Each structure stands twice: as C-alpha cells, then as structure tokens.
Amino acid sequence: MKLIKWLLAIALTLCVSLVLYITLLFDVNAFKPELIELVKKQTGRELQIKQDLSWSFFPKLGIDLGGIILSNPQGFKTDEMIKVKGVVASVALKPLFSNKVQIEQLLLDGVEINLVTTQDGRSSLDGLVAENAPNRAPEVTQESLSKGSGQFTMDELSIGGVRVTNAKVNIINLAQDSLTTLNLKEFTLGKFSLGQASQLQYEFEMAANINVSSQGKGLLTVSSDLSKLSIDGLDIKTTMSGDALPETINTAMIGALSLDINRQALQLTLDKLSAQDFSGSADIGVNYANPIPKINLSLVLDEMDLDPYLPAEEGDPATDIHESSTTVAALEPDLSALKTLDVNLKVKIAAIKAAKLKTENWQIAMKVKNGKLTIKEFSLDLYQGKMNLTASLDANQTIARYQFEQSLKDVQIRPLLMDAAELEVLSGTANFSMAGTGQSLIPTKLKQNLVADGAFEVADGALYGVNIPQMLRTAQAKLSGELSAVDTQELKTDFSRLTGSFNIKEASVTNPDLAISAPLLRIAGAGSLDIISQAIDYKLTTRVVGSLAGQEEQANPLKGLDIPLKIYGTVQEPEYGLDTSGLLDAKLKQETEKVKEKVKDKLKDGLLKRLGDL
C-alpha cells in the first residue's frame, strides 16, 4: 500500500514539475509584439490579439488564444477584415523537449471575414501580397524549408486534427450594392501529416440571390515538399434555391481533385455528376501559369429531357417572331469576356428531347481564344439522318462577325417539321447544305446582314396543302367553260425528286430554280420569302407529261401546256392558287403555236405540190 502511495506521489510531483517547467520557461506571450510588428510591416494592417496566450492542461496540453482581429485598409466602412473568437492548439507534450511541434488538435471557433469592394474598386485583399513579389512563386522544396529556419523542418510537423466551427464570410460589394454571406457550419480534418491521406469533411450555407447549401467529404493528401495537393473520394452534395431559379436544384458530384503548384495546374475529375434529372461525368483541367488560364473541359451526359424546364407556349408563333424582332433593345451584346478566356470544350450527349423534337448522339467541340469562338464540330442524329455544323464568331471588332457551314443528310423532313414547328408542308428524305457569313448579333440586323447560299434535295416525298393534279383538272374544266369546278381530293402532291438552290441577302430568301419530278408532271418554281414578315411570293410552272387520272391520253388538252400556279400567304399559313390569267395566256400561246404549225404544214404541202407539177 505504501508503494502505491509513493508511486502516486512521484507521478504527481512529476506532473507539477512539468507544469511549472512549461509555464515558467515557455512564455508564449513574448511572441505577440513580434507577430504584430511583422504583420504591420508586411501588409500595413493592424493586428490585435486582445487575450493573452495561455496554456491549458486539461484534457490535453494546449495553447489558447482569442480576440484576434486583422483590420481592413484605412477608409473602409467595415473596419475589421478578419475576427477570430478563439483558437486552441492541443500539443503533444513529449516532442516539446526535443524542440518539435506535434499538434494533436487545432480548433478555430467564431471566425468572421469581411471582404469589401468599395465603389472606387478597392478591395480588402489589396496589399496583402507585396507589390514586388514575382508572378510565379518559387519552387518549394524540403531542402529550402530546412535551410529557412535552421531548427524546424516540415517533417517534424503533424496535426492530429483540425476543426473549424461557426465561420462566416461576408462578401460586400458597395459598387453593386450586394451582400453575399457564406456560413461554414463545420470543417474537420482528421489526423494530418505530409504525404499521408487525411479525412476531410465540410458543411456550409451561402445566402445571396441564390441560396446554396453544400456538404462534402474526401481524403486530403499534401506531398512532403508541399508542391502537390490531392483530394480523392471527393463526394459533394449541393442544394440551390431562390427567386432567380424556377425550382430547387439538387446536384451531386463524386470524383477527385489534384493541384500541382510547381506546374500551376489543377485537375478535377468527376466520375459522377448529376443535377435534377440530368447525369453524366466531367473532366476539368486548368493551367494558370499564364495571365489567361487555359481551361480544358470535357462533358459526357446521359439522355436529357428538357420539357419540364421549357416555358409554356403562349401566343401565335408568327406573331411572336415578328414582335420579338421589334422589342429587343437595339444594342450589340458585350462579348469582351471572350478576350479573357482560353477554353477548349468537348461535349457528348446521348440524347436530348425538347418539346416534341428528338435528337441523339450529340458531339460538340468548340474553342474560345483571343476573342474568337470556334465551333469545330457540332453534330447530332435526328429523324433517321444527321446534322453537321461548323462556325466561328469573331468578337475583336465593335460589331461581331460570324461565318458558318451547315448540312442535313438523309433526314425524314415531315416528322422533323411537324415536331419542330407543327408544319405539314413537305415529306421525303431530305439533304440540305448552307454556308454563310454576317455581322451584328442584334436580332433584326442579324436577319438583315446575313449573306448565305445553299442547296436542297428531297427524294420520294410529297407537298402538303396542294393537289396539283386536281388543280390541273380544275384548270381543264375552266378552260372548257365549267367555271364551278371544285377540288375535292386530298391536298397532297406526290413527287419522286425535288431539288433547288437558294441565296439569302437583305432579309430575303430567293429560290430561282426549283425543280420537281412527279409521276405525270414536271414542275419548275421561283420566288422569295421575307425572313422578317415570313411572307411568301412564289410561282410554280407545271407541265403535264402524261395522262391525268380519269382522262384519255389523246383527249388531254393540258398535255404540253405550261400551267402557272402561285403560292402566297405566310410560312405558317401558306395558300395555293391557280394563275388563271397566266393559264389563259399559256393556252392562247399554245393554240397560236398550233395554228402556226398548221399554216406551216399547208405552205409546205402547197410548195411540194407546185414542185411536183414542175
């Protein structure tokens, strides 16, 4: 029993001696004036440490400090830039006798940061980095760290854990009269040492025009020479809401992040990326060695249904098109941001459904650099065919200039027109090509300044809204004196091939050479379409090359006769009619030709008879 008492007495004596040794020989407050002076010299800011630094001995040996304040520059409305309520560093006791620091746990509580931008553009961050500092930070190595202190090396530093609670960041922009508040509810880092993975976890909220709530976790690793940082097993879930959004948006990301300080490169790989009903993966690389960071972004997205996010249809489409061109402000969009970007973007999308339009296999490759946007590839599958587009936009001039080439190949045109615009005008397998240039992105000027040429071909199709054979039978009846003849058959004209070319200039589409081959007909056309008003002014010339249904070959008075038809109205509501006066003129011309032929025949016969008599 006496032995146990002696052992307890010795242990107590050792503990008391240790406490006295630490408190008497280690005066932590002696560093305060040096630290305050150093901050003043480097930044010009005032650093306050209101509470004395003190030792805590239960439950662990630690250093407590609080009331830390770093000021904003002089003249700022908010005096305090950083305010810390309390910091506790729990230190392992044994390594102190060897001049080593092993922090078992670091606690930060009540951190508040006020980042202010004044109306004249000054920032709270101004002056925190010396103006004569080089643009590129010197390479950090273990050797340089060791030489820098002489007594302390980074391999002697380890932290049992870090915990930050009740942290708040206020981003105040007086020029824009805006306030964004970020609340870091909790940040924890597990046992940390260089070169080893440590568990990382956070939860924060942001209040602004869009409210954000996010939580995440991962495994943090910092290399021994401090040049590389990585977070594996990154798992982030975020919720966004607010008046600026149509509904609450939930997102999730799973992947990995890496940062190479020497190469000044950041890489974010997301094996899973989801937002609402959308899902896919992404790969983002950033090289920030140059003044304009170079960004490579690759996205792979699964099938997307955009219907729930499209606005409800309202009003008449033709009216909407016309009104939109007059209500948009006549100002060129500001594209100056393109000059500050160096971005390569690649996107693959399995399928997209928007309204009734269905598309698949999207492939997009585009680049933004030196104020120019280039679409190197934009292709997709639609309605048993394929669309391809290449384009460029140059924003280096006051009025942006653009050029493009577009094609459609083997597309079923009828379902495409029906789903895209509810137009039943044409059916068949369509091929289409167009190339053009223009300037200005103001909607009205865009239409007026577009200059383009193109061609089209449709095979095995039909024109809807007009039955040309029936119209010809009506024309024949009218030529015969039956002025009350009425069309009763389906308004559709089948054809085997439809071809033509077109050009666009001064907001007008002109087609000079439409050619349609139908079973009994040959049709040629020419006319124009006003892009702004959507008005049609078009004429067709039809020639019968066979017998119309219900007619004898020899009894068809229209065979070989050029019969003029006209198309007018608008694209949404086209109207078709027979050009009666043109028909009569053509018939008169045909009869005149017949009379001429008869006269020629009689003169020929008479001449031959006279020659025979001689």
Outline the secondary-structure elements:
Layout: H1 2-25, H2 32-43, E1 47-49, E2 54-56, E3 62-71, E4 80-91, E5 101-117, H3 142-149, E6 157-159, E7 162-173, E8 178-189, E9 192-193, E10 198-207, E11 211-222, E12 228-241, E13 249-260, E14 265-275, E15 278-287, E16 294-301, E17 304-305, H4 317-327, E18 342-354, E19 357-369, E20 372-382, E21 385-394, E22 401-412, H5 413-421, E23 426-439, H6 443-449, E24 451-464, H7 468-479, E25 492-505, E26 508-517, E27 521-530, E28 536-544, E29 562-569, E30 574-578, H8 580-613
What is the structure about, briefly put?
InterPro entries: AsmA (IPR007844), AsmA-related (IPR052894). The protein is α+β, with helices and mostly antiparallel strands and about 625 residues long. The chain has helices at about 1-25, 30-45, 140-150, 315-325, 415-420, 445-450, 470-480, 580-614, and strands at about 45-50, 55, 60-70, 80-90, 100-115, 155-160, 160-175, 180-190, 190-195, 200-205, 210-220, 230-240, 250-260, 265-275, 280-285, 295-300, 305, 340-355, 355-370, 370-380, 385-395, 400-410, 425-440, 450-465, 490-505, 510-515, 520-530, 535-545, 560-570, 575-580.
